[in-house]
Each structure stands twice: as structure tokens, then as C-alpha cells.
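Data deposition worksheet. Section B asks for the primary sequence of the deposited chain exactly as it was used as input, without tags or linkers unless they were present during the calculation. Section C holds the resulting structure in C-alpha cell form. Section D is free text for depositor observations; keep each observation to a single sentence. Incomplete worksheets are returned to the depositor.
Section A, Depositor: J.P.
Section B:
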Amino acid sequence: MKRVRNGLFVLVLSAFLFVAGCSSNSSNSGGESEKKGETIELSFMGHGNPDEKKIFQSVIKSFEEKYPNVKVKYTSVPPAEYSQKLSTLIASGKQPDVYYAAGPEFARFAGADQLLNLQTYLDQTDIFNPDNVWDQALDRYRYNGSTVGEGDLYGLPKDVGPWAMVYNKDLFDEAGVEYPSKEVGEWTWNDMLDAALKLTKDTKGDGKTDQFGIAGFPLENAVWGNGADFIDYDTGEAKIDTPEFIEAMQFVADLSQKHKVSPSQEAEEAQNSYTRFVSGGVAMFAMGPWDQPSFWELPFGWDLAPWPASPNTGETATWLGSMGFVISKKTEHPDEAFALASYLSLDEDGQRQFMELGQQVPNLKSLAEDEFLNMDQAPENRQEFINIIEDYGKPNNGWRSPDVQWLDYFNQEAAKVWNGEMSVEDWVKQAKPKMEELYKKGNLK
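Section C:
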């Protein structure tokens, strides 16, 4: 992919960086418009829950105070509507200056030459110290013209999102069950199941379970921890028919179908597991750092523990999500757009605000390993977020796949296992060839 900068631009960029350099702890700038006294408007689109929207409004206000020549028109779209709205805007040539993109979307946009190459900016500013930013976040937004994960940066991490196991301490205490171990790999699937059986109850005495031991146990965690995987990204071979995969999927299915310690698909449709957990009806669940603001308001004690390890491998796994800030290649204000994206992603003041408001683990290691770990708010075991980032977190499924029809098919058809319609062994034989067909059609052209 061709670079979007030339020598003249670098000369101009260096000049305005020099002018702005003494005004903050970074070398960001509002660009030429600041010199001319002009005010420009940037469009920025993201998605998230109401807490996230409020947090971003607050941080954007701080950005505008730092760069008074720039005004940000911030649009927060409901997550379920985001991809469609963004695709529509791009197709009409009206894409935002700065917007969220990650995983398959980032791969598609980078491959379609829609994104601004940020490497020259980053090479010319002292706001960016690659040694102080998680590699696990940065590498998601590299692109070398053909492969995601290598080459120049075409995006900056909004966050790196460790998907952690959270547990209701009050329910454990009431049942006299010992809390999960904080040592990664020490607590196994069997230990979790034993605890979940003791924590699953009919508290009303009406013959119906209204307190579950576990909900939302991710299939990826069981599969990866058991030494299996879903797809070979290079060849398109589906890996779901291996004994290790089948065993892992069966374990997850048995939590609801056999052991009854997790809500069935029907129960999930009646009331989702998130609602059950926050209302005190689930003992073990899953959370990301962005859930902190809501969880701080919960009327019960909670903390984090490592996901249980496969008893076969001794390995623990979970997915490590991330969203990225990307800049449209067609933006009329690339300098200001970079100033916004880098403030939200890399600026110490911006990252501290996100941290204190409960939005995320800081992208900056220096903040994460000091101030974040020492915050006087739940969870007590904040180290678990860091452990996932540094140790046993893996990129969420499909991150290197521009076309994810194969994954959509898997998730939709897997309902036949979750509702007991098909056995795992029969289902994977049926699903494997279709997954491979869809993957190769969409990704190996």
C-alpha cells in the first residue's frame, strides 16, 4: 500500500509540532488551522453503552480545552447498529474523520485503502513510545499491504479489553464456597463445576432454578485452553472436528444441558445473563473493564479470578478484545484528526481520565502497572486484567479475517448443540465443510 505522506508534508508537520511542543506533555497539534485562528469541526463516531457515551463526552471536552481550535462532533451509535451505519456512510463517501474499527472491519477497511497511514505522524511525535504501549494492542492495527498484524500502524488502540471472570462474593459466602484461586492455572474446569453445583439454587422453592452457578462461559476459553482452535487462518481449514475441540464444546454444552448450573438457551432468551448477574442471580460471569462503572453501583461484593484451566492441559485462556481509532484517508483535517485519535489513545492525561472513570485498562503500561493497580475501587484483584493482557489472553475469534461469514455460520448453527438438537460430534461433521467453504470464499481469493 502506498504511503500517504511525502517530504513536504513532513517538513510542515515538523514545523507545527515545534510550535505546539511546549504546550503539553506531547507533541500533538491542532494543525495549520490553529496558526490561522480557524476553528474546524471533526466528526467522530463510536458505539457503546450509556456509561461509555458519558465518559467519552467528558474526555472529548478535555481534548477541546487542550485544542481550542478543534470542535468534535461526537456520535455514539448503539452497538448493534454500528457496522451497518458505518458501511452506509463509507459507501456514500461521508465517513467520519475518526471512528472505531477493529478485527474484521479493520482488515476490510485497510485492505480497501480507506484508512490513513499513521506511521509518519507517530514517527514525528514524542507522544508515542511504543515500549510503553501494549504490543497486544498495537499489533492489531498494523498493515503491510496484505497482512494484518505486520507493517505500519493504520490505527491506534482505543483499548485492549481483557475478558475476565467475575464472581459474586456474597453468593459464595452465603453458600460457604471458597473463592476461586487467584493463581492462573490452579483452578480447573472440575473445580469450577463443583463450585457451580453448590451455587445453583431454587431459592423460591417453586421447582425452578433462579440462582445459577455460572453463566456466559465462553466457548473460546474452553477450546483454546484445551489446546484446540476454530480455523487455520492461512489455509482455511476448520479445526472443529478434533477430539480436543469436541471435548471443550461438550464441556460448555453440559453446563446447561447436563449439570443445569448455567441458564439454558431458552432461559437466556427469557432473561439475559448480564441482567441475571447484576440482579444477584448468577455467581460467576464475565466482564470487561468497561463494565466497571455499572458494577461499582452493584449492591453486592464482587471480584475477579482467572478463568479455570483445562484439566487436560493445565492451560487457561480467554479472549482479549480491542477496538481501534482509525482516520479516514479522505479526511480534510488529517492533522487535527491525528491529534484527536492520539489524545484518546496515547495521551497520559486522556488515558488517566479513561482509567479513573472506569472505561478501560490504560493503553500505557506505566499507568496500568502503577496507578491502575492501586485504584481504591473494585475489583480488588485488578492484577487479573493485566494477567490476561500479558499472559493468557488471545485475540478474539476472527480478528484476522476480513470476511467472517464462516464465524457467523458457526455461531448461528451452534444453537443446535446448545439446545440439545444435535450432539457435538455429529454437529462438527456437518458444520466443518460449510465453514471452510465460507472462509475460503471470503478470505482466500
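Section D:
The first helix runs from residue 7 to 20.
The longest strand covers residues 40-47.
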